[in-house]
């Protein structure tokens, strides 16, 4: 099997872990090892870290299933402190990091690990939430940050749109969008005088990005004439690396929110067969989404409904094109598209580790590791997906891997990604169509020129590429 390609010439300069600035005492310090000296700060939006992340995860897995490790500050860490204060740089928080598969699954399933960042805050910190930047509120008050029963109530109002039956019904329209985008790429190449298999295309701009954006926009009911503008605004919001204190970002947020509020009113007056109309009009047991909940839900569905798929498609194509024997398998048998999706999620999933720490609300054990109430826990999805105890030869990319579907790239439990079935379906259709139509597709630049951490949603710490030049 091939070894993982190097996709970024940058390297992480290792340094000793900074002193602890956060966290709380735990009852069994001897049973939870610390990250070894020289461990880099875990920072999802740092391309240098992402380049060597799997080496770091392997080192931490060797230390134990749960390790105390240094993490860069996240937006909600700032909320926990004081969002009115100037942004701090270089702040590091010590967190418990779950490195191995079985313990990660336990952590994702255990309701004593709370996703609600408000829990455990003293009164003075709760008061600071009133000063939270407006653009942070849709995420902070979304179902991602809620525990049962609030999470259950919110999720059941939208879950019917993502059932297996609903997804299968979308297959023809997704295929139609896929073919139309590739037809357009061929026409653009023809206008430049290029012919296959030497036509040029930026795979992300021409295909991997517009495909899921178009699909989720149509599902939500965003009019076709507005989709290009809304997509552009969304990209500027998600790829801005500020933590919410930048006025331009706030202006973009307000413009996006204003458009959505106007769209909600149009849907109230003339509802259609779309998700926004359904959420506005449909009640479950007499319950309906409030305005703030509605805004939060649409933000979540729109952004989460396309960003992970952009990176899934891009990462899968790069992985396949840099593993010739796997590429040959895919060309010989396009039905391996499903395996390609699952192995890409395992090998290079869009989310390395969950960006928000889970709060331990009561003493728990993850495997044999006791963890005290009050600890903050980060769950390593990418690390768990390379656990050799669960995935033999984990650093090999193998689209026929029988256990690849056991990956936890989209999480598990009540917080499993709502749009995971849609992302998987879009990925399967995209891969099958791309490699059926363009069996000689290849990278147009050396793989070393592709850089991690600058893809869709880079401002949110997602793994992906912003540009993937190919010949097709």
Write structural notes for this entry.
The protein has 472 residues and is of the alpha+beta class. It has 19 helices and 10 strands. It has helices at 47-51, 53-63, 75-81, 101-109, 123-128, 137-140, 150-156, 164-191, 203-208, 210-220, 224-238, 247-269, 275-281, 291-304, 307-321, 324-332, 337-348, 381-384, 420-437; strands at 66-72, 92-98, 113-114, 200-202, 358-360, 364-366, 369-371, 376-379, 442-443, 469-471. The strands form 3 sheets. A 5-stranded mixed β-sheet has the order 1-2-8-5-3. Strands 4-10-9 form a 3-stranded antiparallel β-sheet. Helix 8 (164-191) crosses helix 10 (210-220) and helix 15 packs parallel to helix 19. It is globular and about 65 Å long. The two termini are 25 Å apart. Residues 1-29 and 82-89 have low confidence and may be disordered.
Binned, the helix content reads 40-55%
Radius of gyration, taken over Cα atoms and rounded to an integer in Å: 22 Å
Low-confidence stretches: 1-29, 82-89
Quote the average pLDDT: 85
Total helical elements: 19
Question: How many individual β-strands?
Answer: 10
Largest sheet: 5 strands, mixed
- H/E topology pattern: HHEHEHEHHHHEHHHHHHHHHEEEEHHEE
> Which band does the percent of strand residues land in?
5-15%
End-to-end distance: 25 Å
What is the overall shape?
globular
* Secondary structure category: alpha+beta
Taking strands numbered 1, 2, ... along the chain, how are they ordered across the largest sheet? 1-2-8-5-3
